[in-house]
């Protein structure tokens, strides 16, 4: 599977779980807890493999300042979601109203980020990286994710 298909499939899985989480009520403590654990594991693995494998390949292949900008903006969005919003949510009482609000913010952040990757960075990566390299990156992403999860 090529890298872009692999990462896009990851997005679908995590976005569906975030959608479900954001729709839960504060009474759904057990479901919230389960979903949150899965989302955290998926998001952490996904951002890590992108930062270790895909983003460096994209940056290396980049030709224009717009490519660099895309890279740095994506890194900042990972930082916001992974270092600030997700850890905050993990510390929040699952049966609280704060949790509902924070889950929604994380969902919106990830929706925005995944859309930018899929609409801007990935199409650009298809132009910059050849088919063979995208396939090879896809294999490395899958192998690294299997190690992490
Ligand atoms: Fe990302
Ligand atoms: Fe992604």
From TrEMBL:
Domain of life assignment: Bacteria
Annotated ranges, domain Hemerythrin-like: 3-125
InterPro entries the record matches: Hemerythrin-like (IPR012312)
Pfam family, one: Hemerythrin
Name listed for the protein in its UniProt record: Hemerythrin domain-containing protein
Organism of derivation: Luteimonas notoginsengisoli
